[in-house]
Amino acid sequence: MNRIYFEPQVMSIPRGAELTTEAAHPMPGAAQALGHLADSYELVVVGDPPRGVLDAFEVPIQSTSDLPPEPAFGSWLITDDPGSCLARPPGLKTILIGPRRPATNKPALRFDVEARDLNAAVVEILTREAMA
């Protein structure tokens, strides 16, 4: 089965240093969005999610410390860190979450899709799956 790898910061609301002892909260709509992917993909969070975030999800989410060197064909990485796109293993498709970058003369980052948030990233994956 293909996997969706995602970094913890794309599924939780950022919090300030003064809130580090409290449990974090998932992004609005994140549980429903990931639920749409759970039938076709294994969901894997890369790294340690903030305390309490995974409790909000009703779908099974695995955890790993790093991306595999050879991911299954058709797997995705959802990240908000352009550096993660550069360091991805060959064959892993990437979605960069965040505001669109302005046009520049600098070389473009290596990623497959841009999305404004996790919900938009899920729509992109489902659209590409339906069109395949």
Describe the structure in your own words.
Helices cover 20% and strands 19% of the residues. It has one domain: 3-Layer(aba) Sandwich (Rossmann fold), CATH 3.40.50.1000. It has a six-stranded parallel beta sheet. The longest helix is centred in the last third of the chain and has 14 residues, at 118-131. The radius of gyration is 15 Å and the shape is globular. The mean pLDDT is 83. It has helices at 30-37, 82-86, 118-131, and strands spanning 3-6, 42-46, 61-64, 76-79, 93-97, 113-115.
Key structural traits:
single chain; 132 residues; alpha/beta; Rossmann fold; 6-stranded parallel β-sheet; 3 helices; 6 strands; 20% helix; 19% strand; globular
Q: Kindly name the structural category.
A: alpha/beta
* Number of strand elements: 6
Please tell me how large the radius of gyration is: 15 Å
- Summarize model confidence as the mean pLDDT: 83
The CATH homologous superfamily name equals: HAD superfamily/HAD-like
Number of spatially distinct domains: 1
